[in-house]
Amino acid sequence: MPLSFCIVDDDASARRMLQHIIEDSGLGEVTGTAESGQEGIALILSETPDIVLMDLLMPDQDGIETILSLQAQGCRSKFVMISQIENGDMVSRAYKSGIEFFIRKPINKIEVESVLYKVNERYAMGRYLDEIKLTLGKLEGLQFGLPQLPPGKRTVKEIVQPILMNMGMISENGSRDIITIMELAVAEGNSGSLPSLKELYERTAAKYRPVPAEAAKEVKAIEQRLRRALAAGLTSLASIGLTDYGNPKFEHYAPLYFDFEEVRLKMKEIEQGRDSGKVKVNIKKFLQVLHLEVLEGLGR
Prior knowledge:
alpha/beta, five-stranded parallel β-sheet, elongated, YcbB, CheY-like_superfamily
């Protein structure tokens, strides 16, 4: 069954061009088009397409606002953003809203086909993996008559380790600190919010070093280990992005866990074979995002 597409763009010629590319290339079927954010919301909720091509800048509301509104109303379509803008903050915001890829204007047939083939492949793979998980879940429940484990039974460590591994930082000493910080944060029971970095460091140090004088020295060491671990993760993701900008790991983790401007700067440094020492890591942001992912993984 071919994938269904909707196109939301205030430029009529862009809508026509995208529709021709999708249908002429056999990528899928365009089930509807809209020229504004509000019209697009009504269309997409009605048609429930597999994939939506969304213009970033539109007269009534921008594409990011439109996507967030759709997601809040239960929309599960995959989104591809269309834009002339290459501003780092806007790109970062777009990826955080859940888009899969960017298509840059003016529209290029080869780029559109390349991007949408990747989206199609990822959509098909996601659907295939969902079917496998469903089958395995049923088999687990049947094996030896054992009941299926309810969601949210994983430990904090089991959730965090694969994330750190995907970012290429699991071998860093700071990965142990990150796991400990998450375990302490979850034990506190603060929904979605974290204490200050100073408080997190102090609690972690106290767990390692019960003697106050030793714990005080450990606080600085924890911060240094975290910075090195995050720097390693940033470098790993930037290297992946240079090789394949559409790599799922890069697209998910780079803009979500790091400031995208810093990611771009690190990519530039790697490309030029130098290290300026100017790239910074935002520890608070990293831990906040990770905390939210952990809570989601625990079913909270």
